[in-house]
Amino acid sequence: MNIRLKKPVGLFLCGGGAFGSFQSGVIKKLAESGLEADVVAGFSIGALNGAAWCFDKVAELKNIWANVDNKKIFKFSPSYHHMPIELYKTYSGEGLIGSLLSKAEDKISRMTVFSNKPLYNILYSWLGKRDLIFNKRTVFHVIAHCVERKLPYIMTYEGRTSQAKVNFIDALVASCSIPLVFPPVKIYDRGEKLHLVDGGAIGIATVNLNMFDGCKTVIMVSNSSDWDFSYEGSGFFKTFESRVRKTLALHVQKIYESKIFIKSAPEVHLIKPSKPLASGIIDFTPSSCLRHFQQGEDCASKFIRELK
User: Please, what is the end-to-end C-alpha distance for the chain in angstroms?
Assistant: First the structure.
């Protein structure tokens, strides 16, 4: 089944934690259909899936999700970070209580619960430590959020990783550094110390699709469903889950709407779950991840059929 699209082609991969297993299923089918992407971009788990695409490791993803282990990813190691972080404000009220709650959240978000060393070890084992050369001819943009600048921080790699100013594995970990969960990655840019975190749950000073200028087709793969806008939970972790889902869904919507700013006016296709993804956004359980992976394959197969 060969997919025919106007070239050049861009592939944008959104974040979503464990829901990235859905996205993995999508890109597996897209790869099998013969899709070649000239430009790839991703944030959070989308950056990891993007790395799989660039290094031609998409075929390995199902096995990775089948053997994912929460215990190997999350190592309890509480820490506090002196950084001026500001989360996106999703409170509807503009009064004193809403303002106080927002400020409290920003303070709490300087704390993180888990170490990022396990993620580093996983990525080193999977990709290697030294200069890495892509197996695909593509430009890869890894997207994080710069706390100090309150803006997206985009790290670009053109075929190999040694020529960029930010170490490739550092870039991937930074893109996955969910506030409250994983610590930020510290880098120096022109002598300035910066803290990089996952942009998917931060402010809507959003990434836009301008990085795909010149493309004639862009495929955007989201892990958020329409139901995430109204997802409600109770208790600390459920509240965290609710906030992250809603913010991520809004982030994805804003990114998709930015297609109007691409000068080359490409066709932009959005692939997203056709029904709510069960389990939690940081619940890396093989059974649920494989179920999401299958949903991703099914959505991609439908997308390919409709194109044909």
Answer: 9
